[in-house]
Amino acid sequence: MINVLFICLGNICRSPMAEALFRHLVKKEKLTNKIAVDSAATSSWQIGFPPHAGTLEILKKYKISSDGLIGRKLRKEDFWRFDYIIGMDKNNVKNIYRITGKPNHPKVIRLLDLTKYRKDIPDPFFTGDFDETYRLVSAGCRALLNKIRKEQNL
């Protein structure tokens, strides 16, 4: 099983959106028996909380299930459980390195580095723009799935 973990600051906006969308893509491609998906936060502010209402609304708009999404914090041992650890921005990536104790490891990737955008995904908790976040997360998730398919011969 290939394990993918999406990370953002609070695990209520960007990373659960990416988790749900990536699961949706994996299911659509009939790869659920090969790829498992999760998400986590680098902070502990929203542990145990469901996604932000804006994230839930955008997922509903695109008919993507939000079942099972609940905030949790990234743990050091997650480094060993996951094959791909995906940060939404540069600060997330720095915090992933700090928490896991594995600086500059190639399994840790900023999501949009896989796309033509090559930038941070703005946090809609602060911007309020869940549509832009969805557009960027969608581009990143599609690029990530292509990368995994190629690397894992799927």
TrEMBL record:
Catalytic site: 8, 14, 123
Gene3D superfamilies reported in the protein's UniProt record: 3.40.50.2300
UniProt keyword annotations, A-Z: Hydrolase, Protein phosphatase
Catalytic activity annotation: O-phospho-L-tyrosyl-[protein] + H2O = L-tyrosyl-[protein] + phosphate
Name the record gives this protein: protein-tyrosine-phosphatase
SUPFAM superfamilies: Phosphotyrosine protein phosphatases I
Highest taxon above the source species: Bacteria
Keyword rRNA-binding: no
Membership in a protein family: Belongs to the low molecular weight phosphotyrosine protein phosphatase family.
InterPro entries associated with the record: LMW_PTPase, Ptyr_pPase, Ptyr_pPase_sf, Tyr_phospatase_low_mol_wt
Organism: Neobacillus cucumis
A Pfam entry, by short name: LMWPc
EC number(s) reported in the record: 3.1.3.48
GO molecular function, one term: protein tyrosine phosphatase activity
The protein's enzyme class: hydrolase
Domain Phosphotyrosine protein phosphatase I: from-to ranges: 2-147
Keyword NAD: no
